[in-house]
Amino acid sequence: MKRRIVRFLSCAMICVNAGAQKIHEKAPDFSGTSPDGKTVRLSEYAGKAVLVDFWASWCGPCRQEMPFLIGQYAANKDRGFAVIGVNVDKDAKNLSKFLAGLDVKPDFPIIHDPQSKICPLYGLEGMPTSVLIDRKGIVRFRHVGFKPETQDVLIREIDALIAEK
User: Fold this and answer.
1) Is the pLDDT of residue 64 over 90?
2) Alpha helix (H) ranges present in the chain?
3) pLDDT score for 165
4) What is the pLDDT of residue 21?
5) Per-residue pLDDT tens over the stretch 98-141
6) CA-to-CA distance for 61 and 28, rounded, in angstroms?
7) What per-residue confidence (pLDDT) applies to 20?
8) Whole-prediction pTM
């Protein structure tokens, strides 16, 4: 338990940036590499509602959240919705082990960001952090942490962003 707290605190210290984006501001563009070597850029999703999710394999709430994200993406991808996962594990083996242990694998891109180059752009305060971006590229909602009871809030926000044209 102590090791997990230390890992969380070190990630939080690396990721926090006082000058990071805020709600109702343009989402900072980023790119990264997926475990299969593909480059993923936020700007490629222009015109879609996007949920960018920052997570780590050692994070309990991240483990709870992943099946929810997989389900939301599957239910909404044909409606103009995308998910990009940003994993902050230092070791790619932990990312791979986490994904291998899932009953249903994510069908959305996951970027491995071991040097935490992306998360300072979003001023993370904890894991997981979900950032919802509208079709115009504006950050509209932000959630730190994940509890099963917040699923309804996220679903309403996702639906609202998808409905906007």
Assistant:
1) yes
2) 2-15, 60-76, 92-100, 151-163
3) 83
4) 58
5) 999 999 999 999 999 999 899 899 998 899 999 999 999 999 99
6) 25
7) 55
8) 0.88
Q: Give the Cα separation of 133 and 150 in Å (integer).
A: 18
**What mean pLDDT is predicted for residues 54-74?**
97
Q: What fold characterizes domain 2-163?
A: Glutaredoxin (3.40.30)
Strand arrangement of the beta sheet that strand 129-133 belongs to: 39-41, 31-33, 110-112, 81-87, 49-55, 129-133, 139-144
As a whole number of angstroms, the distance between CA 56 and CA 53 comes to: 10
SS3 22: coil
Q: Is the peptide bond before 128 cis (omega within 30 degrees of 0)?
A: yes
Residue 107 is classified by DSSP as S
User: Tokens for 96?
Assistant: 């791979």
Instruction: Give the CA count within 13 Å in the CB-facing half-sphere of 54.
Output: 28
Token output for 91: 């070791």
Contact (Cβ atoms closer than 8 angstroms) between residue 111 and residue 84: yes
> Which one-letter amino acid corresponds to residue 143?
H
Q: Name the residue ranges covered by the structural domains of the chain.
A: 2-163
- Angle (CA) 122-84-98 rounded to 5° is 105
